[in-house]
Amino acid sequence: xxxxxxxxxxxxxxxxxxxxxxxxxxxxxxxxxxxxxxxxxxxxxxxxxxxxxxxxxxxxxxxxxxxxxxxxxxxxxxxxxxxxxxxxxxxxxxxxxxxxxxxxxxxxxxxxxxxxxxxxxxxxxxxxxxxxxxxxxxxxxxxxxxxxxxxxxxxxxxxxxxxxxxxxxxxxxxxxxxxxxxxxxxxxxxxxxxxxxxxxxxxxxxxxxxxxxxxxxxxxxxxxxxxxxxxxxxxxxxxxxxxxxxxxxxxxxxxxxxxxxxxxxxxxxxxxxxxxxxxxxxxxxxxxxxxxxxxxxxxxxxxxxxxx
Length: 308
Known about the structure:
Elements: E1 4-5, H1 8-28, E2 34-40, H2 44-60, E3 63-69, H3 75-86, E4 93-96, H4 106-110, H5 124-131, H6 140-155, H7 160-166, E5 168-172, H8 179-188, E6 192-196, H9 206-210, E7 215-218, E8 236-239, E9 243-246, E10 254-257, H10 262-265, E11 271-272, H11 279-302
Parallel strand pairs: 1-11, 2-3, 2-4, 5-6, 5-7, 7-8, 8-11
Antiparallel strand pairs: 9-10
Helix pairs in contact: 1-11, 6-8, 6-11
């Protein structure tokens, strides 16, 4: 068996067209969409992400403004920047990039975000709504995983609701921004769900969980964590890992790999997402879709309608 490689770029292109159309419709109504990213420090992955978002912003008509702060910036100064973005009329969505320096508390920063502009649902109010199954915005990575899976199921002739009702979904990774939202979205689809993290590999028990999965979603941030022995034959594997590996110590050149050992696993699975080119491109576009939704929500809030 050689698994089908799911083309995330193709799915992202269709989604990008929809986002651009929505941006145009809002602009015709006098509503603009603007994303402000806030980075503290010089993390390479965050820099790369900002570059991708600027490119997609140009393609769909959303202005992207980057605020980059020194790694030594105090928590109070970061909060001041967030509060300024909250009241900036040109900013309809705010993205605080991870990781933050150790001296800056994520929780303290996230709770300062205006919930209506919190497009990744990290503010306690939005995180709570997501956990209750009534999200204001669905976090981009988790949303993209299930969008990719839904699209593939449709292409494969599967009825999504029936598939989820009989499927066991195992999520590897329990981060607040990816792993936990993935579990919430799997619950919403009425699937059987199991959550595990990479620590199970230290006791040799990881495969006892992952080999039971009909759908294995890997979001641990550990390159090559999932090997052939961790995957049941015929499973669908969705790799969320974005790991930068140095391939040349002299030049500092890197390459991107996932959490799944792709070459070792592909001959066991029914379908698999590659890294790069799988979930990642869809995530970037979905985030822009959340900016559009935030623009609409901001108008409703200003007019006294909708949830604040």
